[in-house]
Each structure stands twice: as C-alpha cells, then as structure tokens.
C-alpha cells in the first residue's frame, strides 16, 4: 500500500497566481485548503473562506466570567463570611469591588487569549507540523506562495490534487507524507519546558531571598509606610497642645453605643438583660467568652486561668455560690468598669456582645449546677 499522504502542495511564483488558484481548487473540493505565504496576502482570507477566529468569543465569555467571579467572591468574603465595616461603609457596597473586578476580568481575558491561542488553536505543546519538513517550507517563508490541499479524514487523491494544482498554475508540486503521530508532541520539548519553568522558579526564589537579605531595609512597597500621618503618641504641630492623639469631642458616643453612666456596681444592679436567650445569642456569647474571658476565668468560668501564676491576679470563681445568683447588672458593670486585677473590657464590645456573654456565663453555671428538673 502506498504511503499515506498528509497534503499535496503547489508553489506559486506570485501572490496573484496563488489568489487565482484558490477558487479553482476550492471548486474541485478535493480536500481542506491551507496557504503558506511569506507575508499576509490581501484577499486570501476571503478567497479561502476562512472563518473568524473563535478566540474573541472565548475571551469575551471568560472575561465576563472573571467579572462575575470577582464580584461574587468579594461579596461573599466582605458581606457574608467576614463582614468588616470600614469607614462606616456598607460591607456589601459593590463600588469598592470594582478595582478587583477589573483586574480579574483582565486576568481571565488575557490568560484565555494567550493560552487559548497557544494550546487550543496553535496546538502546543506540539512544536512541529508536517509542513516544516517539506522543501516548500524553505521558500514559502521567503519569496514563494504555497497552497496545500490537506487530507480530510485521512483521504486524499494525491494524483488528482497534483493535476489540479498544476492546472491552476503551480510552478511545482510536492507531496507531504502523513507523519507518525508520535512526532507531534515531543517529550523533549515538554521536559525542556518543565526544566525552564523550574529554573525560573529557583531563580526568582534566589532573587527574592538575596534581595531581602541584602536590602532588609528596603520594604517592597513603602508608600503606605512613608506617607505623612500621625502614629500613636506622636506630637503634632497642627494642634495647639501638640498632641497627635485626640480625645473624642465632649459628649461623643460611639456608633451603636450608649454612654455608660455608672461608677458603682450597686448602681448597675437594676440593669436587666435585654436579649432573649436564643441559640444565636448563646453562640455570640460563647465567642466573646472564648476570645476574652476564658484566658483568665477558665473554660468553665471556675477561676482556673489558662494564664500562668506570673499573671498575679486571682480571677474570680464564677461557679461559686456567690455568683450563681449575682445580679446580671453587676456582671455587666464588671465588664464595663473592670475590677481590681480585671481590666475594663466593655469598650471593646458592642452592647449585644456584653449581654450575650452574660447569657453564656449563666448557661455555663447552669451546666455545672444542673438540677434534676433540668433533665
Ligand atoms: C486579665 C484577666 C481577666 C479577664 C480577661 C477577665 N477577667 Fe473577670 N476577673 C478577673 C479577676 C482577677 C477578677 C477578680 C477581681 C477582684 O474581685 O479582685 C475577676 C472578676 C470577675 C467577676 C466578678 C466581679 C465581682 O463583682 O466580684 C466577673 C463577673 C467577671 N470577672 C467576668 C468576666 C467576664 C464576663 C470576662 C470577659 C468579658 C472577664 N471577666 C474577663 C480577671 C479577668
């Protein structure tokens, strides 16, 4: 059996001869047409009836996907999973997401354009094409114009194509045999790529390592460190008393807070817990307790601190008889004002957090002193 043919290729002397031959071969429908020219030949695309590249559409789809990814990602992080109020702004305001949305759009779009072109349309990692082994490839990059008829589904009538090309004005005709498929992807090329990637990583790592070691005082982005601003405890020439740190204006109240008027715990005795004892409240209370109280009062609030004896204070055993029916207002007062070795912590909590931790404390006490009726 004869060797299988990849394509039959005719060389033309001028672009006009090539352009004239295209419709004649197209009319014969012997196989898929492909042209190789040293420079873009005007009108060739239309003559061959090439379709527009699908790359634009792919980039569009992936770009929009990038926009949506960034929008949803930021919305979920900022408004759902970890809402942080910055400068009093709504955590879900989309305007703040725009820069990242823009960046991710560009990222998705450019990567789609680059990788789509190289991997999908240019068929990397194949570095080779049957045409590259032909004699014609040497002149088609210089001053000749090649028109190839490629086999479709492995079928090509080489003799007929050859005759048709000659009839259409080809100066010479060459047959390109079907390559052994293994040659299309070269293991060596893949290994080379991997080695180059690894070398680049090592080089970048070494560069960073020595860069930071040799220039430890060079922060990578110093514009935020170096900006004119007042750090804590710094003097200021702007204010007459030269203090950089300003106390809040007289009578100012934190957002969502109320001024706490009491100085003695018996004044606070009458305060009642405004929160219902729901699962949600208890969960909030547990969080506040675990993060703030547990280290001194112990996980069971029985006064066994996690802190070592070096702390010096003797945290109250809140499971003791005294505290079981201690007025909640006085616990609130302790949180707000502190007591001896216990610091005043209340300013760091919201109103709800203060009352929620009291609910949780009550639950801890009840768990340690369960009655038959609790079962
Ligand atoms: C740095 C350690 C420390 C932390 C943190 C701490 N406490 Fe205390 N707490 C103490 C000490 C010490 C005492 C005993 C004070 C005293 O009577 O001299 C105490 C006493 C108390 C009392 C009894 C007050 C009274 O009237 O006798 C309550 C109630 C209390 N703490 C609740 C809390 C709650 C609620 C938290 C978390 C929001 C908390 N503590 C966090 C150290 C701490």
Give the SSE map:
Layout: E1 5-12, H1 15-28, E2 32-36, H2 44-48, H3 55-81, H4 98-121, H5 136-140, E3 145-150, H6 158-167, E4 172-177, H7 187-214, H8 265-268, H9 279-297, H10 321-324, H11 328-337, H12 351-368
Antiparallel strand pairs: 1-3, 1-4, 2-3
Helix pairs in contact: 3-4, 9-12
Heme C binds next to helix 9, helix 11 and helix 12.
Oligomer: single chain
Alpha-beta classification = alpha+beta
Helix content: 40-55%
What is the tally of helical segments? 12
Heterogens: heme C
Strand order of the largest sheet: 2-3-1-4
β-strand percent reads: 5-15%
Low-confidence stretches at least 5 residues in length (pLDDT < 50)?
none
N- to C-terminal distance: 91 Å
The topology string of helices and strands comes to EHEHHHHEHEHHHHHH
Global outline: elongated
Whole-angstrom Rg: 39 Å
Q: Mean pLDDT score, rounded?
A: 89
Number of domains: 2
Largest sheet entry: 4 strands, antiparallel
Number of strands: 4
Structure description:
This protein is an alpha+beta fold. It has 2 domains: 1-189, no CATH class; 265-374, Cytochrome c-like domain (Cytochrome Bc1 Complex, Chain D, domain 2), CATH 1.10.760. 45% of the residues lie in helices and 7% in strands. The chain contains 12 helices and 4 strands. A 4-stranded antiparallel beta sheet has the order 2-3-1-4. Helix 3 (55-81) runs antiparallel to helix 4. The radius of gyration is 39 Å and the shape is elongated. The mean pLDDT is 89. It binds heme C.
């Amino acid at each position: 059996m004869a060797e299988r043919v990849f394509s039959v290729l005719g060389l033309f002397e001028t672009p006009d001869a090539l352009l004239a031959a295209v419709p004649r071969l197209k009319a014969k429908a012997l196989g898929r047409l492909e042209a190789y020219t040293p420079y873009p030949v005007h009108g060739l695309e239309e003559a061959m009836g090439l379709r527009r590249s699908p790359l634009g559409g792919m980039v569009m789809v992936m770009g929009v996907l990038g926009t949506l990814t960034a929008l949803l990602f930021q919305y979920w992080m900022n408004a759902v999973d970890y809402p942080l109020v910055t400068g009093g702004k709504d955590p879900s305001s989309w305007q703040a997401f725009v820069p990242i949305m823009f960046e991710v759009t560009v990222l998705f779009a450019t990567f789609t354009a680059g990788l789509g072109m190289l991997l999908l349309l240019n068929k990397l990692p194949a570095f080779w094409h049957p045409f590259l082994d032909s004699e014609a490839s040497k002149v088609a990059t210089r001053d000749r114009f090649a028109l190839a008829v490629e086999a479709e589904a492995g079928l090509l009538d080489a003799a007929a194509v050859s005759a048709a090309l000659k009839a259409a004005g080809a100066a010479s005709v060459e047959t390109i045999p079907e390559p052994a498929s293994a040659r299309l992807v070269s293991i060596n090329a893949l290994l080379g790529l991997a080695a180059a990637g690894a070398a680049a990583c090592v080089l970048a790592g070494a560069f960073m390592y020595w860069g930071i070691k040799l220039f430890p005082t060079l922060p990578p982005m110093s514009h935020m460190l170096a900006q004119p601003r007042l750090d804590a405890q710094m003097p200021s020439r702007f204010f007459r008393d030269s203090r950089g740190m300003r106390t809040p204006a007289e009578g100012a109240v934190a957002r969502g807070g109320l001024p706490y008027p009491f100085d003695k715990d018996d004044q606070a005795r009458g305060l009642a817990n405004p929160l219902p004892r729901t699962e949600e409240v208890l969960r909030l209370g547990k969080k506040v307790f675990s993060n703030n109280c547990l280290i001194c009062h112990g996980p069971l609030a029985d006064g066994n601190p996690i802190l070592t004896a070096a702390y010096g204070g003797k945290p109250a055993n809140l499971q003791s008889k005294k505290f079981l029916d201690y007025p909640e207002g006085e616990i609130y007062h302790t949180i707000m004002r502190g007591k001896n070795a216990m610091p005043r912590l209340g300013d760091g909590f919201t109103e709800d957090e203060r009352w929620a931790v009291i609910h949780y404390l009550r639950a801890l006490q009840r768990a340690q002193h369960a009655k038959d009726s609790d079962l």
